[in-house]
Amino acid sequence: MAAAAVAPPLPPPQTTTTTTSITSPTSTSTSAPPTSSTKSSWIALGCEGSANKLGIGLIRHTPTSATILSNLRHTFISPPGTGFLPKDTALHHRTEFVALARRAIAEAGISPADVDCICFTQGPGMGAPLTSVAIGARTLSLLWDRPLVGVNHCVGHIEMGREVTGADNPVVLYVSGGNSQVIAYAEKRYRIFGETLDIAVGNCLDRFARVLNISNDPAPGYNIEQLAKKGKQLLELPYIVKGMDCSFSGILTSAEALAAQLLERGPDGAGFTVEDLCFSLQETIFAMLVEITERAMAHVGSSQVLIVGGVGCNERLQEMIASMAQERGGSVFAMDERFCIDNGIMIAHAGLLAYRTGFRTPLDESVCTQRFRTDDVYVEWRD
Known about the structure:
The chain is α/β, with parallel strands linked by helices. Helix content is 40%, strand content 19%.
């Protein structure tokens, strides 16, 4: 059978890549007449802040290509053993927004007059951080007299993934701190074939890291991944797949109980190490994700898998999905942290594609929502 292919290393951020898709990121805001067909170049500024990453990026589109001009990110990192609270994260975004926007413009080598639209994450995400960044985007829109484009966070991940990997019609495994979904395109929408029934996979990993005081720098999931590479013993943990859906709360509870034993008795008394526990948690969770992804591939007849979202950076997850895809004669398309982890350029890209179809978000309709479903978006650009 044909070997599964992981997408080749990504080009430097200044490299031009080909784009053929146009997206309309929300279905709730009104649309304006299409932009002039004589225009040959468009630039968008994208603002992302749905969780603890503040990202601002600028992208240029031509009718046949997309060029990343700048893609900056500033992360709010809380102390070990703690999570990031909405109010603290929102304060971080408000504090860093102006400086990051100025740096992004300077790195892009353009002026505000060159920007065609201001794109921002309208949801889903954490309410306070979303609102902080939306206020920044509205301010730039008013100061520069440029239209707003609200973007669905999940669609931003998918569109950026399709752009940088060249995946044509993949099943999408979207795994992040706040979302866990298996998605495939059908009839003008990104349909959710399976998802978490409770907490997201990234949230499960983050909360587990707090019990063992695993550092949040650069991210708890990354540090769990490094510890898991040294694990040797596979501990039994709940494996909960219900049809196309997964549940992660039970496995988290069990992992926390084992972590408590480890902290109380030590490795010798408990019979396992921190590394063993991280290894077991990863293996079990990722096996669940592989199962529902394979089922979706079989259902829609796709031979491609695209992994997006912050947890998609995990090399072990990529390896397990690639192994499954290889057995099916398919291929997996994966990315590194520049585009898997929340970033402004994915919002700029999806928003600019929408802008080019005539889509706008009026100021009075730019309110953010934490419950903005992936399948709420009408995918106008695809057949």
